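Duplicate of #3305? Posting structure anyway:
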């Protein structure tokens, strides 16, 4: 998938929120891409744009999203419906609000399968759902239960099952572990890693939890203020972050091995995307800001296999 000059705006009564601003991005087949940044940096909006699931008044105002050569932005609604679920699936933050409380689990699977696979019988759809649950380590008997009867971890596994039941190539996981406790979160991430290998999935893991990306991601994209700050191999980014924002993010992770009387924090707060700072959007918080940073926005440049948007690198 290639994204070219993508901008997403939300016109509101006090102005226009530039949630994603001229983003160029590339996703390789079979990789796990961690998409990280503070709340409101545009990472979820970018994920939702890929499936054209933006809630009004959000809209894509420019750019292309090329999936296997076809532009999703300009695709007719009928084709988008085919793509959603079947080729690209998404799992959301909170499974309890994503599953319909009035439907049993089997009804969620059967409805999904029958909507996309013409000619499939309800019996076959039920069998497929049973197989999927077994592959997720859940007893098929749970198919007859309602969402509120399952634990949080089990509900999130059901969400993954619904995401995978149509055999997509790309899975977008938007903060999938937010509603889980740490033990269930660890089990869930192990399951995701296992499913990625088993189904040869490409995964976009959207999270503000750097521990999750360290565990799963092959590459990492760091977003700030609606723009991409840095893209690189996960190991390289953790060992040697180049962008000052990535450096600040990693420095702010508490380390129990160090004697730190105070937690390290980044000064300032995320930018107002209705009226973002001129030049580099990070300059009001950046310890290395120069004159040029205040007037001109840096473009993405390539350095040692990394993409960085910062005047320190030319
Ligand atoms: Fe800091 Fe300037 Fe780089 Fe922005 S462009 S991150 S302000 S050094």
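Output from current build:
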């Amino acid at each position: 998938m290639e994204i070219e000059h993508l901008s997403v705006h939300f016109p509101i009564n006090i102005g226009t929120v530039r949630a994603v601003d001229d983003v160029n991005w590339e996703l390789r087949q079979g990789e796990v891409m961690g998409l990280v940044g503070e709340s409101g940096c545009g990472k979820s909006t970018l994920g939702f744009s890929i499936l054209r699931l933006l809630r009004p008044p959000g809209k894509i105002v420019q750019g292309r999203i090329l999936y296997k050569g076809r532009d999703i932005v300009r695709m007719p609604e009928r084709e988008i419906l085919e793509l959603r679920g079947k080729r690209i699936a998404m799992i959301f933050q909170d499974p309890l609000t994503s599953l319909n409380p009035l439907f049993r689990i089997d009804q969620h699977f059967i409805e999904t399968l029958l909507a996309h696979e013409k000619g499939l019988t309800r019996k076959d759809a039920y069998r497929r759902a049973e197989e999927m649950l077994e592959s997720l380590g859940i007893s098929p008997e749970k198919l007859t239960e309602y969402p509120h009867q399952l634990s949080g971890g089990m509900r999130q596994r059901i969400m993954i099952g619904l995401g995978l039941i149509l055999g997509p190539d790309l899975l977008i996981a938007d903060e999938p572990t937010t509603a889980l406790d740490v033990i269930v979160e660890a089990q869930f991430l192990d399951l995701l890693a296992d499913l990625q290998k088993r189904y040869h999935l490409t995964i976009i893991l959207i999270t503000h939890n750097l521990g999750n990306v360290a565990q799963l991601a092959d590459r990492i994209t760091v977003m700030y203020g609606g723009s991409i700050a840095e893209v690189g191999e996960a190991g390289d980014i953790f060992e040697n972050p180049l962008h000052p924002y990535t450096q600040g993010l990693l420095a702010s992770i508490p380390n129990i091995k160090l004697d730190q009387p105070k937690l390290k924090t980044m000064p300032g707060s995320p930018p107002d995307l209705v009226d973002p700072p001129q030049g580099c959007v990070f300059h009001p918080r950046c310890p290395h800001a120069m004159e040029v940073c205040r007037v001109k926005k840096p473009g993405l440049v390539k350095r040692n296999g990394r993409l960085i948007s910062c005047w320190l690198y030319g």
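Confirmed duplicate; merging threads. The chain has a mean pLDDT of 93. Residues 20 and 302 are 21 Å apart (CA to CA).
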